[in-house]
Amino acid sequence: MILGASLAPAALVEDGQPRATIVVPADASPTVREAAQELSAYLEKMSGAKLPVVAEGQPATGTRVDVGLTQAARQRVPTGFIGDDERVWIETGPEGATVCGGGDRGTLFAVYRFLETLGCRWLAPEPENELVPPRKTIALEPFRLDTRPAFSWRLFSAGKPENERWGLKLGMNGLYSAETASTNGACAYWPRSIRGVHAYYQIMPAKRYSAAHPEWNPLLGGERTPTNVQRGQLCVTAPGLADEFAANVVRAFDEDPGTPLVSISPNDGYGWCECDACLALDRKLCGGRTTQQGLARAKPFMGDRVFWFANEVAGRVARKYPDKKLLVLAYINYAEPPDTIRPKPNVVPFLCHYAPADYSRAINDPASEANRQFNSLLKRWMKISPDLMIYSYVSKSMWWRLPRPVLYTFAADVKYLHELGGRRYYCQSSLSDWPLDGPLYYVIAKLLWDPSANPDAIAREWVNGMFGPAAPAITEFYAEVETAVRKTGKPYSDNPRTQAAGLYDRASLDRAMAALERAEKTAHGDEAVAQRVAEVARTFRYGYWMIEGFEQSAKLEATGDPACMEAARAAGQKALTYCEVSKAADFVKRWKTGAQLGVPNNGFGKEETKGDRRCWNSDETGPGDNACGWASFTIMAPDRSKPMVIEMDVWGESQLTSISINTSKNVWTPIRSQQRLSRKPQWDTLQFRIPPEALDHERVAQHLGFGGADSQIWVAAIRVQKDK
Ligand SMILES: [Zn+2]
User: Fold this and answer.
1) Residue list, CB under 5 A from ion ligand 1
2) Domain coordinates of the chain in residue numbers?
3) Tens digits of per-residue pLDDT, 258-300?
4) Helical H runs in 78-174?
């Protein structure tokens, strides 16, 4: 609120000369001293004047700026303010300014909010993307701000120090690191011995326990199997396991007493123990029922088992650390709330918007079947665990950096979660890919403080700050990218291979490209803006051409037109000249091999030469490992009423006698060759005659495969024999 100004405003800086002193409490913590230094440093960047920082009680000249809960500030803040850690109080007037928080962290946030009122903006993590307006004179206009963040946990995967510093400026309160906890007001971080969400394998490493306690390993297919991050859980009913598990969690907190949380979640994937006791537990807790995620096949429901074990651990940990929170993923076949188990107060369900999920629409948009399912389980979770944390896929590496316009859906989700009573939000993201995601991270960080804020206005501020003269063209660019997806109405989650084709409206993408070209022209001459536009353009051009590759590939499957394969390869290769995305590069290799081999394919190794011909081995890992010998390819059969003859140029020393065709009923029919390989170092041609009854009559595209285990088969070309 703005107060009427009756007296001349006090000055911090006049004509480049310091006119104020920053005063911190006599016993200021490292965080409060850091906050004061940040204020001094940014005022100096703005004006060239360096304001001294002194402890309360020391002489202070000029206008007084209290940072933190000095004795003077304590007189001014409202009742109940002190101890409300993240609450922010800023008051300026003719006598000076008070910039403080109810706790140390709040003071740090207060300094950044205060600098924002003076025009500073931190738009992205890189130092060149902060805006610090040059001002020779900085006067204090009368102003008061009393605010606190709407969400109590505002976490992301900071990773690098520059992302951490940016997160603090945006008011995020973790996940940072043990090393910086003393200067960031004890923001949350993973304990050093248990990092990341998938935790069973970290807390109970197979290396340490497998020999002495094989019974703690899950029983899988009749064997006690050691686990890792990707595979296998624990035999949660095994005697002694919960004690040891809890002792290790307690030890992690002993080593890192500063953090308020740890994850005690299962490893990624499945591998649930099949022993009698674990199955009996499932039957007792949830009748041994199954669960379904989206369109996936039903799987045994593990929610009760996972949260039952979490409670076993939580009770033990609470004896020493009753206030520390134990995060437990609600994910894949344990995403649904448990039937009978109710998480203990120190257990925080960590609900992943993963599957079912559709990022083209908001969670509460009933038009999306996937989100309708997720919304239903979210609401059921909120009833039993209102303190849960949402795991939001703010960025998604699985989406290969293709355009993913999620700003407005995610903004709507933050508002909706807040309405439901959600107060904990985690971004799966280091929030550092603005060339792809634009204002997304900035908007989310702001909404986590104030979900009632207008995402459009925040996004506009970001675009104007980043792109200056090119802002109108860039605004149009973002709008067209969003329209491209909205127009087709297709859902997408995490699989570009099956979802990208048909997802984007081509005309909108073309208009987006045209808007970008205009932005490039407008930015010409403004170095900083031109650089930013170039980053956005590079990323978008990569996406534009990858999308074209997926479209061509889909057209090939539908029509069998071989020109599409070459077009897909060319588009993919072009995409990679703008951005090297490793998963996309692997995929483009398939298009390339397809164009050379004559058919779309999967599972071949690198290009080799044999007998002067370019060829590919069906075993990409080579002999001796008894793995990866299988390769597959697709052949088009426009007329499925006639037999089809497939010709393959195969190296004579290969181990190949038959290929298999996969019908829509998921049956693999082996087809023997009409010739035998020569067993000599030469190129042979084999023919496989496929009768019409073995063909997949539902589709033009026929899927075939050969090899397996460790078989070594080199192929130079695959083609359909033309009718004679
Ligand atoms: Zn078991």
Assistant:
1) 235, 273, 275, 278
2) 10-148, 190-352, 474-596, 601-720
3) 999 999 999 999 999 999 999 999 999 999 999 987 767 899 9
4) 104-117, 161-169
